Amino acid sequence: MPKRSISRKVVQAPVHTFEHQPELRALPVLAAVPGHLTFPVPDEAFHPHLRRGEFAEVDLADHQPAHGELFLIAYRDPRAESGRRYRLCEMRRKRSRCDGTQEGWIAHHHEPEAGPFWLAHSAMALPLSEGIFSTSGAADRLVGRIVGVFVPPIGSTRGPAREA
């Protein structure tokens, strides 16, 4: 029996080159503060979304937890002058380890004042998680959702000009 030759068509896939986009972010960069609360970003814990020296824009009307979203959270702290300590956090939905049916929320954040041990071992910040919170318990602690970032212009003054 004679062999059949199968003609194969070779299709070249289009070549895509990767372009590095250093300013690609999930949060919109705002040119002006739109009336939300601003909170200074103390470290690189949530890079590339938030960077040290920028200001997170906090929507005070939205404090219902959502998985993977960034929030400003408040903790009671008798050492602080106001009695509260504020941190940026990422909310994560978790199941209870006991029975696996109960779900709750964990606030994942970094402690920038991690102490001399962590600084000596080249750690930027100590990763911490708080919870498991119920949905209402998490909503009570959350100040608001991070909806954008304000980047002050380089060389801008912070406050009114002083007269000599």
Description:
With 164 residues, the protein is mainly β. It has one domain. It is 7% helix and 34% strand. The chain is built from two helices and eight strands. It has helices spanning 116-120, 135-141; strands spanning 29-30, 37-40, 55-59, 70-76, 84-95, 103-111, 126-133, 142-150. Strands 1, 2, 3, 4, 5, 6, 7 and 8 form an eight-stranded mixed sheet that branches. β5 (84-95) and β6 (103-111) form a beta hairpin. The longest helix has 7 residues, at 135-141. It starts with 28 loop residues before the first strand and ends in a 14-residue tail after the last strand. 18% of the residues are buried. The model is unreliable at 157-162 (pLDDT under 50).
List keywords for this structure.
mainly beta, 7% helix, 164 residues, 8 strands
Write the layout of secondary structure elements.
Blueprint: E1 29-30, E2 37-40, E3 55-59, E4 70-76, E5 84-95, E6 103-111, H1 116-120, E7 126-133, H2 135-141, E8 142-150
Parallel strand pairs: 1-8
Antiparallel strand pairs: 2-3, 3-8, 4-5, 4-8, 5-6, 6-7
